[in-house]
Amino acid sequence: MVSCSISLNKQxxxxxxxxxxxxxLNFFHPFCHKNNVIEVDKSLIKKxxxxxxxxxxxxxxxxxxxxxxxxxxxxGKKNGKKSKVQWKISKTKNHNSLIINVFPYxxxxxxxxxxxxxxxxxxxxxIKSYLKSVLRGLEFYLNNNQxxxxxxxxxxxxxx
Length: 160
Fold this sequence. Notes:
- By secondary structure, the protein is of the alpha+beta class.
- It has helices spanning 12-20, 25-28, 115-144; strands spanning 2-8, 32-41, 44-52, 57-66, 70-76, 82-91, 96-103.
- Strands 1-7-6-5-4-3-2 form a seven-stranded antiparallel beta sheet.
């Protein structure tokens, strides 16, 4: 698992609105070219498409919604392996945080004996860097009510 969090000086309802609205990644995701909802159940997103700046297309399938607290989804190429992702709002007396946990799929392209080293020294830092940029984008959006620009916090070799 790779985890990243950010403390936000906003009410949990504002954080929830930002992360649960349709096409939300268009506003705060610095590597998002386009985020379109393709399936809805009542007002909840069931499936959307995330097109990254480099043209990579991922499908996100939401399978658990916990209103005002977070959600869980699977993300990956349409017919490829998927990674599990959790978005959780953590509330305390003094502040609120958003935590994103990623459980990446294990690729067959790396020898299973080498995989733990590749994961620890390459994959995990890349995912962590990605998550930090996404969370910084959310913070920027919530604090400034402005959409982030492409690669606002630096480029990412997997998605820019």
